[in-house]
Input
Amino acid sequence: MKKVRVCKTCDRGEKETRLQKCVICHGFYCYKCRVRKFGKLFCSKVCAELFFFGDED
Ligand SMILES: [Zn+2]
Ligand SMILES: [Zn+2]
Output
């Protein structure tokens, strides 16, 4: 089975852009959609905030 990696925000694939894996949600994101916060990169603002607040649930 072939797994196609796409940016979770814009749906662009690896052929169109460079994808990186989000450390929070393990989803992929491209350089256009990435969010930089606290010197780290995330797929979205939501994940950046999760990283900051932690998961003390
Ligand atoms: Zn994207
Ligand atoms: Zn994420």
Notes: Helices lie at 45-53. The two ends are 36 Å apart (CA to CA). Residues 1-57 form one domain. Residues 24 and 51 are 7 Å apart (CA to CA).
